[in-house]
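INPUT
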Amino acid sequence: MNLDGETNLKLKQSLDVTSSLCDERCLQVFTAVIRCEDPNDKLYSFVGNLHYTNEVYPLSPQQILLRDSKLKNTDYVYGVVIFTGHDTKVMQNATHPRFKRSKIEKRMDKIIYILFSSLILISFVGSCFFGMETRRDLVDQKYRRWYLRPDDTTVFYDPTRASLSAFFHFLTGLMLYGYLIPISLYVSIEIVKVLQSVFINQDLRMYDRATDKPARARTSNLNEELGQVDTIFSDKTGTLTCNSMDFVKCSIAGIAYGKGETEVESALARRDWPSEGSEILSERIDSHGNAVHSGMVKGFNFRDERIMNGMWVEEPRPDLIKKFFQVLAICHTVIPEVDRDTGDLYYEAESQDEAAFVIAARKVGFEFFERKQKSISLHEVDYVRGENIVRHYELLHVLEFSSLRKRMSVIVRSEGDLLLLCKGADSVVFERLSKDGRCFEHETKNHINEYSRVGLRVMVIAYRKLGEEEYETWAEEFRKVKTSLSADRDALLDAAADRIERDLILLGATAVEDKLQEGVPRCIEKLAQAQIRIWMLTGDKLETAVNIGYACGLLRQGMKEIVITLDSPDIKVLEEQGDEEVLTKACLESISKQIREGKSQLTSAKEGATEFGLIIDGKSLNFALSKNLEDSLLNLSINCASVIFCRSSPKQKALVTRLVRLKLGKTTLSVGDGGNDVSMLQEADIGVGISGVEGLQAVMASDFAIAQFRFLERLLLVHGHWCYRRIAMMICYFFYKNIAFGFTLFWFEAYASFSGQPAYNDWDMSFYNVFFTSLPVIALGVFDQDVSACLCLKYPLLYQEGARNILFSWCRILGWMANGVGSSIIIFFCTTNVMVEQAFRRDGRVADFEVLGVTMYTCVVWAVNCQMALSINYFTWIHHFFIWSSVAFWYIFMLIYGYISPTISTTAYMVFLEAATPSLLYWLSTLLVVVSTLLPYFSYRAFQTWLQPMPHDLIQSRQQLKHSKEHTKHCES
Amino acid sequence: MGERGETSSMGGGSDGAMDSFTSAKKISKRPKYSRFTQQELPACKPILTPGWVITTFILVGVVFIPIGLASLFASQRVVEIVDRYDEDCIPSRFKDKVLGYIQDEKTNKTCMRSLIVPKLMKSPIYVYYQLSNFYQNHRRYVKSRSDKQLRSNESMWKTTNCEPEALGEDGKPIVPCGLIAWSLFNDTYKFSVNNNPLDVNKRNIAWDSDREHKFGSDVYPRNFQSGGLIGGAKLNSSIPLNEQEDLIVWMRTAALPTFRKLYGRIEVDLEANKKITVTIKNNYNTYDFGGEKHLVLSTASWIGGKNDFLGVAYLAVGGICLFLAIAFILVYVLKPRPLGDPNYLSWNRNQAGRWN
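OUTPUT
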């Protein structure tokens, strides 16, 4: 398991004292005691000792294998299990998965409560009236409504026990008005969401050819949440970047080589030509991208005919070029491996940039092919003689890379020469150059600045010839330090190394691109246009993170950086003193001071157009996430355009996610690809896993899985937007249709002395949510599109409709409910006034209970289905079919149901065919009622679209305008 | 796909190329292309452009106003005489003890009314009785019947829901059972013009389906109104139920507490200003619950009886639509706005600060 998000090899070693134990028999007699810290979640530290034969051996992370580690280059190891199960560091870093529900559904629950209360309220009102009426039926032995026989009745209608009757009526009322609670809504929503997920899974534009992976919606209940994302937390490695380093440029002896264009350069170029240049540029990226993909070696994107194919010998300083690449080929910790099947050579490297160096050296002609304990072997080109030779280098010392030293050196002996080869960060190497080794310093520095401006990782290459004597004295000293057992051994070693890494001669600098995934800067730009905050959380170093920040457009030129870090000298001093309490206090103080400063910077720049980028490292984050600082941290971060957290542990990622989710209450989305992102994915409202190379852990913990980061754009802006809109509309409409129906029952009750008699036939009522209104609303939920996919992408601002929850605001919900109540009033009062009392047909017959019920029901079915037709924006044949067949089915149902024998059809027998159809009044009242119920919504929409158009209204009309061939061509091509 | 070829990075490309690619690879997880799954079905996208809005409003107005006028005209043509008689038919000496009067079987309940025909009434003239405040739609009342019993003689004993009018004092079932039948309306009307009796045709006043399928020809009234409490009319026990049309009409319960029921038809024309004398047997007790009784004579047109509501409603809706059309035109003129200008995207400007 790659807890830090890196798949590279990590060197693990046993203690010297135990390294002799290599079979079962030895282990049998081996007895030792390990004392160690309690289980904790810190991945990069381990404190413990091995007590063995009265000696104490310190244990460091080097000796610890984390759970789920994979062995490479070793067949087996013997070990002691220190923590198991929940005590392991991996599990300590895991947060409990939450049960995720979308915000819309949570709000829907609230609406259901409201409806339930109103159900209880109207039932209560009904029973009060019923109770009063019933009580009045028998006063002083006088019957009022004698035809109900109040003297000889059941408890349900007993005037002498009117309160009890009222109570029972209350229960009847709950059943009768139960239509207010749209139980079928839950079923419909489930169906719709599953179908929406199918669309996400089937989207060809989210299918990755390279990995043969389509997008996967792993849960269906968060679809609409995709349309409401406010903040995105993104992992870096494997998510924004491909986790592969490309050697793109170098500067040797003051001359810059390498013509490949990096993502950042293209991004920069794009900014130089705003808008109209984007077409050209997208082509450029494409050609560039193709070039990379067309069979070049991974890790190498260097193109320069001056160097390649052995042409470097023609350059002004071939000797330096040779040295340069020799350093690249020798100074590293890479292990070469031969593929058993193909015989190809490939490299296993602890860090990807080292691999890139070795590959580059190999491409130029210095092929590193063997590493032994004490030597390194290369195939080399001898430029003087122009032939291939094998050369062995005796490896004397490796002075390893550490974040403190920021450089790595090897000391080798080759053909009698003693050489110290060094590569390292520009800041440390330049100060170690000898006086005569600085001849290209100026040019190299210029190049380095140029490289880092375009987001490349720069390493400076230098070497030094060592005198035999000097080396001997130093080596002796170094050996002594190395074998000493004092606590500050590391510091002493560094100091010793420092003594030999001096007077270097500058060779040049390399520039490696941490390759971004395809389309990342564009995707980030689009998401930024959609006003989604994007925060990068990475386990990487600060410099790397900042570089990538620039590369993918999170940080931009001209953006002011606020860096919060604990790398200040006074903190370091405290660290060395080792007083925990003082250190913590100092750290807290330093962090809060930095946050305050950042804020004051922000406020002072409020007027100006300066944007701020906030960069925090993991150690500082530890303190900044403490209770009293987290608010100010959050405050600072949300006011910055971009935020980058580097060196953060999985737990910290999750904590940041939780902080934003809980404190801001906005929807958060996490993107990640590795096991280290699992807790972040679970903590966020939506977890999106990149199903890349890092295994399935992130995908298994995610809610959506995509193959490439850039698909996020389509997932959010298109699918998210659509799903949000669909579900929001669907729920609103569902409430509308059930309220419109339920309230007609209530109005009728008011005219039936609240006795609990439903206005409609029982079967008609039961089928309301099943046959007459269910399919259109599902069609709405599955197919509706306010604007086409290409316009969704073209106007990312449209996304804010979801992020601001405009379509599911309380106003809108209550508006729809009011519309439902209004419709029910229109339906009930119009039909009753039209149909009742006088004859409703030419033959003088009057409308009875059943006829009125059928008329009202017809109006309800028409009204809710037409309302649906009015409120959707996207009519396919499916919509037409569902809507009109629902209406048609009502008539067919009445025909059939009314035609079968009265034993089954009971009160509905022949009502439609015999009584209603021949009556013109029946048809006219339907028309009148339907038009009047639609009128309020229609006029509201007409005026609102014109006076206060919503974003999608604008874009729709634009779409309409451009609905000419030109536009459609764009969308289809 | 995206605009302006921006999607080149989106793995799109031409579908043909992708197809050839996948066909080479046998088992591909690549989703199959169909317009359905890609959500690209051909669709019409109605948009509320001013043109459409105005056209719709005007269209509705133009259609509705003529319908409204026609309905109103049809309703106006209907001649209707409504006479409330419940109060006037109580003799003055019984004014204080109405209930005693109406419940006493021995009192003379005959009552004479005279009606003036306001306009020529073409036959058929429908005779209705109209009751108000009578809850025929009360749950207890509606349920208090046995359709099975009404339909066939064998189901005589099926008197569920009929309580307390299920079994007579002899323990045998009441046919027809239940409160509805028990409370059958029993006022009768006799009409005469200039002492010439006017025939009231009481045939064929019920629905055919009721007569033929719901009320059996072999079911005869039995034990009806024989108990201690007499509700309403008695039935001739020698006539099968399917011929007792008054009962059939009554048993089609009314929707609202104020309702009319067809009593019969007068099949001669009545001249204007003719004086009709009605002899009413005022038997039915609506006084307990304060219900009114009306006698209604009405002709019918294509919309049925006299009811201005439909016409007025159509006119109103049509009028509102025309008004809205004008209002919208005014808005359109006063607040013009270019269609589809994305610069109007509302939070474009408000939120300029956060991202570029």
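end of record. Strands of chain B lie at 80-84, 110-116, 125-131, 188-193, 196-198, 200-201, 259-266, 275-281, 293-298.
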